[in-house]
Amino acid sequence: MNCEDLQIVLHAYVDGELDLVRHLDAEQHLAHCASCARTCKQLQALQAGLRSSVAEFVPPADLRRRIERSMLAIEEPPPAQRRWQGWLALAAAALVVFGIWALLRMWPTENDRLARAVVAGHVRSLMIEGHLYDVKSSDRHTVKPWFHGKIDFAPDVYDFAEEGFILGGGRLDYLDGHTAAALIYHRRKHAINLFIWPAPRTADEAPRGLTRQGYNLLHWSRGGLTYWAVSDLNAAELRTFADLFARQTPPATP
């Protein structure tokens, strides 16, 4: 995918409407094109601003009095007509409410967009040969120092072999505008990708689960970092892994 191709699908990418293959293509281009990545960040910032900011109308002080005078000047309709007008107004209001609800349902939240990016990153790591690891080791004292100097934060790496979650290694990844550390654990034949990146203004949150495209995900925040675990492992075992990791991670300092 080149810059021209990306511009055609960029809005759909930001809205989370691309299929998995084109999402991966767009994500790969954004990881290597600084100009397109800047444009993408601007669109995401605009989307977040539109979602969080609601224009507030402050009415003039005498607006209520003017409306009341106008209503008194209107000739009172017959009772039957008043009933029909009431039902029509109620139906119109219901249609407006339904339309707003449908629009909000179609507009993906930030978590929806991140979840799609996490799944795409997980699938990409398994599909592209040699992409799963940048450093392959079951020794956390080898994996953790590997990230030093490559990213501006230090992800914690833990050994859960006794609990049945085997550390496989790590790599750098790029998800939805975030440079992320990816830790790979294995549970029997299932791979778990744990994506980590800084979120300094985010309060600590316990793991929360969701499902996207047949994969189980868990998302939590701890100590100024955000975590996304994704796997085709069943939800209960993935929850066990997330709880193990979250308990080991130091909380945010007050």
Summed up, what is this model?
With 254 residues, the protein is an alpha+beta fold. It contains 8 helices and 7 strands; from the N terminus they run ααααααβαββββββα. Helix 2 packs across helix 6.
What Rg, in angstroms, do the CA atoms define?
25 Å
Biggest sheet, spatial arrangement of strands: 1-2-3-4-7-6-5
Could you say which structural class the secondary elements and strand pairing correspond to? alpha+beta
Note the main sheet: 7 strands, antiparallel
The helicity comes to 40-55%
What is the terminal separation in angstroms?
45 Å
Instruction: Give the SSE string.
Output: HHHHHHEHEEEEEEH
Poorly predicted runs are none
Instruction: Count every beta strand, where a strand is a DSSP E run of 2 or more residues.
Output: 7
- β-strand percent reads 15-25%
* Overall body shape: elongated
Tally the helices: 8
